[in-house]
């Protein structure tokens, strides 16, 4: 039996779909299923049962002997939330409990870390374990992921296989519910439909032109392929970067969206909101050598390929993965 937490959310529901496509349906899905805007993410997928996240830990303790693998993708991911106690409860303590149950019962665990742990990138974006203690996240969300990574690395009790994945800027189908936290591709698509133009953040640094802030954008289909590979092959237990390995500008992203929609490029620049301005990342790019070194060799979508697939096959017909 497989457990997928966060299964009503963006990456979690795509992971459930990936597992179905690989022939797996004996799956326990975990989330807060009261949110109606997420129902479409999983209602047409196959699973054995769904468990509310508030009672899951008790269920897991009682049923651990029946579970083989856990994809722990559920978390509070809002980078504009600054109540540390929220992250302690949902991201730190909850994940520690899952880790301990997996360790005690010999269950493989793949969990979501985040590129937010890298902060402003002053220490680079290398997933070398020796560098992790020096990272300085810019917000409580990143701090919660960083503190769990450090906690996991210090454990003597470990699952038989475990992998933490530092997700970079993931985009793709099943993020209709995310609102402000949805990818820039989805926001661009909606803005183009509504006004014929895209609003991008102006640069507030002299070393970056407007719209030339760069991120490592990675398509969710590539993300779930990597998660599936790691759980099936179970190479060295480790913390891995998960990005495309190539930074691209927000201008490139917006342009790719216009091209996919067959519209003329029209961009307006606006100030970065004050509440996130001093915590805004201007450049991220995953070093991917570690993942490649353990045998992952499937090509990642280019930004243009991923945006076209997302826009044409999901956003325009309003479909789910």
Question: Could you walk me through the main structural features you see in this protein, from its secondary elements to its overall organization?
Answer:
Helix 4 (84-105) runs parallel beside helix 5 (140-153), helix 6 (184-195) packs across helix 8 (250-260) and helix 8 packs across helix 11. This protein has helices at 10-21, 39-42, 53-63, 84-105, 140-153, 184-195, 220-233, 250-260, 274-277, 289-293, 303-315, and strands spanning 2-5, 27-31, 49-52, 69-72, 108-114, 162-167, 169-171, 198-201, 214-215, 217-219, 238-242, 248-249, 267-270. It contains 11 helices and 13 strands. The strands form 4 sheets. Strands 3-2-1-4-5-6-11 form a 7-stranded parallel sheet, with helices on both faces. It has a two-stranded parallel ribbon with strand order 7-10. Strands 8-13 form a two-stranded parallel sheet.
> N- to C-terminal separation?
22 Å
Mean pLDDT: 94
Structural class: alpha/beta
Broad shape: globular
- The counted number of beta strands is 13
Could you estimate the helical fraction of the residues in percent?
25-40%
Rg computed from alpha carbons, rounded to a whole number of angstroms: 19 Å
- What is the percentage of strand-forming residues? 15-25%
Major sheet details:
7 strands, parallel
Strand order of the largest sheet: 3-2-1-4-5-6-11
Spans of at least 5 consecutive residues with low confidence: none
Order of helices and strands: EHEHEHEHEHEEHEEEHEEHEHHH
**Tally of helical runs:** 11
């Amino acid at each position: 039996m497989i457990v997928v937490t966060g299964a009503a959310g963006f990456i979690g529901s795509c992971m459930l779909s990936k597992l179905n496509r690989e022939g797996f349906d004996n799956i326990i899905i975990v989330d807060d299923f009261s949110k109606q805007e997420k129902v479409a993410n999983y209602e047409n997928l196959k699973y054995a049962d769904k468990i509310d996240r508030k009672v899951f830990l008790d269920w897991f303790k009682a049923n651990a002997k029946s579970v083989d693998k856990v994809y722990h993708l559920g978390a509070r991911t809002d980078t504009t939330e600054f109540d540390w106690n929220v992250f302690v409860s949902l991201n730190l303590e909850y994940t520690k409990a899952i880790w301990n149950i997996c360790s005690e019962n010999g269950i493989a665990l793949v969990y979501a870390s985040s590129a937010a742990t890298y902060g402003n990138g002053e220490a680079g974006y290398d997933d070398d374990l020796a560098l992790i203690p020096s990272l300085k996240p810019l917000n409580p969300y990143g701090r919660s992921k960083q503190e769990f990574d450090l906690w996991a690395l210090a454990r003597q009790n470990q699952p038989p296989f475990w992998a933490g994945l530092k997700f970079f800027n993931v985009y793709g189908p099943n993020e209709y519910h995310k609102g402000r936290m949805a990818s820039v591709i989805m926001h661009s698509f909606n803005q183009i439909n509504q006004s014929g133009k895209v609003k991008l953040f102006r640069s507030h640094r002299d070393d970056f032109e407007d719209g030339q802030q760069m991120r490592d954008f990675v398509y969710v289909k590539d993300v779930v392929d990597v998660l599936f590979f790691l759980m099936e092959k179970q190479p060295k237990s480790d913390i891995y970067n998960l990005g495309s390995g190539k930074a691209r500008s927000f201008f490139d992203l917006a342009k790719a969206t216009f091209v996919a929609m067959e519209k003329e490029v029209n961009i307006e620049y606006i100030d970065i909101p004050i509440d996130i301005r001093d915590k805004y990342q201007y450049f991220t790019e995953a070093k991917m050598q570690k993942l490649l070194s353990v045998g992952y060799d499937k090509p990642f979508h280019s930004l243009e390929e991923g945006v076209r697939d997302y826009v044409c096959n999901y956003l325009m017909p309003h479909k789910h993965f």
